[in-house]
């Protein structure tokens, strides 16, 4: 019993030490967003100071059309995430549970696209988007980035470890492949769907390069493009960038908290027996 | 689960493409250089009120991604109509020649207009070279040396306001600041090859000679770099700014360095509330052999591919016309890239700003007067011809070798030899490919 | 098993067709660009065959940056792997309370943009006003030039990147751990297995697909590292934190040499493909195929 208590004590101490390492810099970031810029690099460094003010938030929120940018980002993030989850589940399922001609090649082609630096193929992408009339449109922001190799890879690796017997039994019972996907695979995939949703929300919400290519109209700017506008040629407007960065993190935190409840242990365990 | 998917899918499908069909819409690619966004927005709405048939779509792009976004748009076949730019060189083949529109707008012949408006090399160069006006200089950034008045007072130093320090006097003052413990460091210096080159020209050096050979490693160049390196060796400049990549301004902001070698673009930044919490001033740039103050005009240019060349030219000429340019400069503490305006002087309407600008404009005036090969060397190095293309394309090597000299992995002579060798190789390859 | 042959293709079609149109096809066009010498200032370009590729392999700068990228990845990948696995184990351990809140805090660093991450760590590590060096001063220790010495800068950057990436991989590991059937542990407990025994004989083997995922994704991430060193160290001191993708970027947007930049990225692309395939082969992951 003593051993167990010690273990518990040790694990908790370790967790909180790690927590300080991981969270302390962000804690400073949040505090700094409430302070004048000259405190940012103050010497000696300041953690707390009397200069707390909401002025940065008020000024930067009204400096641009942030409500619109948040709305744009929300539309893009929700739609693209829905699409990402659906098509990644489908593709990941096929790659994990079927052996078919070209399967390996397709898998590696998809994965390999991760390695093409977007910066370099930006111009051809731009031309294709232009041909599809997807420049300056929500569709251009939503559809192409929704197919993410990482998403497919995550799903595939998760489904690979689901027992094949589940599928075999269903086939014997005469279920169609589509039915197997909908009624067996999807319900068992709650943890991976939750993971993918969190990631996709983060990717789309934080995406900078893709909107930079697609959008040439300030009415369609996303939050990240708007954040980029605080960087000028010679200076960065920290008193604008920091508060808006902090605000832009909040939706991701909310989604994370909401969806991580779906990381439920061993949800399918009973069905194997 | 199924329902959620169906709903989300429907939502996705219902999101429609938004198209913006307008009268005439001109896209204006823009990057900020300090707190200038509200000013350009108000000028644009002024213009739109004057021209109800024209709408300006201001496309504000983060500076660090500006080159990338603009070159994607250009090579993708949909350049903007108008762009703010630091230089004409990269856009020489795609820029709109607005010369035909000048007489009707200004009532002056192109030749007279060039004479009146400019005095800025790049525009004159392209006009002489091709008979074309490829962009209009807008405002000018000039290098400037800021100082912390409180720390200077503590060290018992008076900053010059009209007669610049020599490098020796400058160095003495720096030593005094550090030894009196008024500040930990005397100077913070922006990490760019352009900023460093100002020392090169003050020492009488140059990057290129008139035979397209890189001679940055001659005695003057080595003298300039050795002086710069010695400031680091004596702990007068923080290494973090050059060997590391900490923004130079941060050391001025927190009072760790008493002087800040930067440029006039910092003035609106410094005047903003919450930027610094001490009194600051500006002094003329120190002088070695030559009184050299480097400038860099921002230009506004149009693109050949625009459907509305007339309107593009009209907007460009309006934005750089005297009353509008004056308004821009007053609000931002900027320097107009217009000879006539410069000579007349701008009233900044604010005593504090007027006193700062007085020092800067006087320094600029003295520091751009010809002396020896100045400013011909600077124009060859950065603004015109193949030499400028090489410098502007391969400057990261210069920065890297300066850092090598500071951190002691190379002597100043070795560092500049390396730059010279590399630049000469690039020049040879540029010449062989254009044959 | 008599499933219809075309079914897997239908499942893959939506995702794959998007790839085909928006990534693979542009990629092929990019490959064609890599055969051209592009002129400065958006002028016409000339076909040069594989000349750009010869230039890539003759460029000592690029090859050095590539070597540095490998070294960095070799340091970075195991670090990320162990930190994120460790975090995931803590964040699923029944002994730790308030896990759902704590997970958010560990995940947050991966949400930050490059500019902000660089700002934060400049503030932490700066030689003169950095938080850590000031702590050292207060404790009477010597200041450490974290970002001013090539070796320190390299290691600092590896740790910063681990800080920035571990939360993301922690989430992947948590999902993997949660999907291990509880019955396996219950059975082991009945057999009187120790915690370590359960970890080594159940958790680790069951996590193999997840581990492969983490290793390959972190390989890609560290090989593409670019934005944080670009802002934080400017690739220095010297060239000690200049990596391959930064060279690609400079070549494309400062030197405006799109042809050479494309050929550099195709070299990177092939190298990654080789490494990825090798990782798969070594892990003998094929046996999971149904």
Features:
heterotrimer, A: 273 residues, 71% helix, globular, disordered C terminus, C: mainly alpha, MetI-like fold, two-stranded antiparallel ribbon, 13 helices
Task: Outline the structure in words.
Chain A has helices at residues 2-32, 55-63, 66-97, 103-112, 118-131, 138-146, 149-160, 165-172, 177-188, 190-206, 209-214, 223-228, 238-260, 269-272. With 273 residues, chain A is mostly helical. The two termini of chain A are 34 Å apart. With 435 residues, chain B is an alpha/beta fold. Chain B folds into two domains: 24-140 and 297-367, Periplasmic binding protein-like II (D-Maltodextrin-Binding Protein, domain 2, 3-Layer(aba) Sandwich), CATH 3.40.190.10; 141-294 and 369-434, D-Maltodextrin-Binding Protein, domain 2 (3-Layer(aba) Sandwich), CATH 3.40.190. In chain B, 50% of the residues lie in helices and 13% in strands. In chain B, α19 runs antiparallel to α20 (412-434). With 290 residues, chain C is mainly alpha-helical. Chain C is 70% helix and 1% strand. Chain C has a two-stranded antiparallel ribbon with strand order 1-2. At the A-C interface, α1, α3, α4, α5 and α6 of A face α1, α4, α5, α7 and α10 of C.
Mean pLDDT across residues of chain A: 88
Radius of gyration of chain A: 23 Å
Please provide the count of β strands of chain C.
Answer: 2
Distance between the termini of chain A: 34 Å
Describe the global form of chain C: flat
Brief rundown of the structure:
The complex is a heterotrimer of chains A (273), B (435) and C (290). By secondary structure, chain A is mainly α. In chain A, 71% of the residues lie in helices and 0% in strands.
């Amino acid at each position: 019993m003593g051993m167990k208590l010690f273990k518990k004590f040790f694990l908790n101490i370790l967790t909180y030490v790690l927590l300080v390492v991981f969270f302390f810099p962000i804690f400073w970031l949040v505090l700094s967003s409430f302070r004048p810029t000259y405190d940012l690099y103050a010497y000696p460094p300041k953690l707390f100071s009397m200069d707390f003010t909401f002025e940065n938030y008020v000024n930067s929120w009204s400096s641009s059309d942030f409500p619109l940018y948040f709305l744009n980002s929300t539309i893009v993030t929700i739609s693209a995430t829905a699409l990402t989850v659906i098509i990644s589940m489908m593709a990941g399922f096929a790659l994990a549970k079927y052996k078919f001609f070209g399967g390996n090649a397709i898998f590696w082609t998809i994965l390999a696209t991760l390695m093409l630096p977007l910066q370099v193929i930006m111009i051809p992408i731009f031309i294709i988007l232009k041909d599809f009339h997807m420049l300056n449109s929500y569709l251009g922001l939503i559809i192409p980035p929704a197919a993410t190799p990482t998403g497919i890879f995550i799903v595939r690796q998760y489904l690979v470890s689901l027992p094949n017997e589940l599928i075999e039994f269903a086939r014997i019972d005469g279920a169609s492949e589509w039915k197997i996907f909908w009624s067996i695979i999807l319900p068992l995939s709650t943890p991976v769907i939750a993971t993918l949703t969190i990631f996709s929300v983060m990717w789309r919400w934080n995406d900078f390069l893709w909107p930079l290519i697609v959008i040439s109209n300030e009415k369609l700017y996303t939050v990240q493009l708007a954040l980029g506008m605080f960087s000028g040629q010679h200076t960065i407007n920290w008193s604008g960038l920091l508060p808006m960065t902090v605000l832009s993190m909040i939706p991701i935190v909310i989604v994370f908290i909401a969806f991580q409840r779906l990381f439920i242990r061993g949800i399918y365990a009973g069905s194997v027996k | 689960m199924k329902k959620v998917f169906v709903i989300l899918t429907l939502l996705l499908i219902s999101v429609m493409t938004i198209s913006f069909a307008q009268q005439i819409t001109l896209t204006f690619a823009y990057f900020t250089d300090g707190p200038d966004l509200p000013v350009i927005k108000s000028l644009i709405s002024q213009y739109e009120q004057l021209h109800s048939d024209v709408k300006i779509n201001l496309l504000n792009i983060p500076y660090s991604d500006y080159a990338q976004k603009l070159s994607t748009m250009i090579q993708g076949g949909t350049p903007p109509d108008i762009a703010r730019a630091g230089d004409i060189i990269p856009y020489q083949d795609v820029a709109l020649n607005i010369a035909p529109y000048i007489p009707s707008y200004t009532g002056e012949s192109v030749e007279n207009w060039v004479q009146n408006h400019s005095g800025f090399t790049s525009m004159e160069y392209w006009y002489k070279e091709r008979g074309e006006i490829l962009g209009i200089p807008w405002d000018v950034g000039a290098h400037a040396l800021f100082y912390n008045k409180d720390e200077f007072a503590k060290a018992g130093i008076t900053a010059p306001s009209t007669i610049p320090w020599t490098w020796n006097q400058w160095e003495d003052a720096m030593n005094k600041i550090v030894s009196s413990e008024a500040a930990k460091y005397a100077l913070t210096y922006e990490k760019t090859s352009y900023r460093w080159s100002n020392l090169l020209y003050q020492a009488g050096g140059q990057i290129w000679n008139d035979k397209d050979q890189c001679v940055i490693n001659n005695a003057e160049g080595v003298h300039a770099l050795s002086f710069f390196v010695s400031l680091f060796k004596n702990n007068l400049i923080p290494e973090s700014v050059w060997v590391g990549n900490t923004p130079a301004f941060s050391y001025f902001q927190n009072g760790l360095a008493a002087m800040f070698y930067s440029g006039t673009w910092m003035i609106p930044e410094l005047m903003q509330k919450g930027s610094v919490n001490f009194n600051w001033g500006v002094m003329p740039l120190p002088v070695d052999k030559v009184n050299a103050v480097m400038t860099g005009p921002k230009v506004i240019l149009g693109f050949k591919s625009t459907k509305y060349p007339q309107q593009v030219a009209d907007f460009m000429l309006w934005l750089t016309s005297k009353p509008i340019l004056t308004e821009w400069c007053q609000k931002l503490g900027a320097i107009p890239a217009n000879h006539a305006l410069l000579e007349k002087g701008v009233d900044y309407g604010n005593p504090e700003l007027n006193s700062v600008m007085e020092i800067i404009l006087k320094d600029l005036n003295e520091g751009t007067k010809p002396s020896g090969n100045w400013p011909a060397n600077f124009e060859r190095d950065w603004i015109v011809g193949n030499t400028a293309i090489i410098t502007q394309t391969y400057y990261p090597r210069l920065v890297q070798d300066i850092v090598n000299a500071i951190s002691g992995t190379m002597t100043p002579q070795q560092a500049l030899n390396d730059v010279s060798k590399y630049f000469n190789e690039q020049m040879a390859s540029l010449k062989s490919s254009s044959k | 098993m008599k499933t219809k042959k075309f079914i897997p293709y239908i499942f893959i079609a939506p995702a794959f067709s998007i790839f085909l149109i928006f990534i693979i096809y542009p990629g092929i066009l990019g490959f064609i660009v890599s055969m051209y010498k592009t002129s400065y200032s958006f002028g016409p370009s000339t076909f040069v065959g594989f000349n750009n590729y010869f230039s890539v392999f003759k460029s000592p700068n690029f090859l050095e940056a590539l070597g540095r990228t490998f070294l960095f990845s070799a340091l970075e990948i195991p670090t990320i792997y162990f930190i994120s696995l460790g975090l995931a184990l803590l964040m699923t351990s029944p002994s730790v309370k308030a896990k759902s809140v704590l997970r958010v805090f560990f995940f947050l660093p991966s949400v930050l943009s490059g500019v902000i991450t660089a700002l934060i760590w400049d503030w932490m590590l700066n030689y003169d006003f950095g938080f850590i060096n000031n702590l050292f001063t207060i404790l009477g220790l010597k200041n450490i030039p974290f970002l001013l010495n090539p070796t320190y800068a390299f290691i600092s950057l590896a740790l910063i990147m681990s800080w920035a990436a571990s939360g993301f991989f922690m989430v992947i590991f948590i999902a993997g751990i949660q999907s291990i059937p509880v019955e396996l542990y219950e059975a082991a407990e009945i057999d009187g297995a120790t915690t370590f025994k359960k970890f080594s004989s159940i958790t680790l083997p069951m996590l193999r697909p997840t581990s492969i995922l983490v290793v390959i994704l972190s390989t890609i991430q560290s090989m593409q590292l670019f934005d944080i060193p670009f802002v934080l160290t400017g690739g220095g001191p010297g060239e000690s934190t200049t990596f391959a993708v930064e060279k690609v970027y400079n070549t494309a947007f400062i030197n405006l040499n799109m042809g050479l930049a494309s050929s550099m990225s195709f070299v990177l692309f092939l190298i990654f493909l080789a490494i990825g395939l090798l990782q798969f082969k070594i892990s003998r992951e094929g046996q999971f195929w149904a």
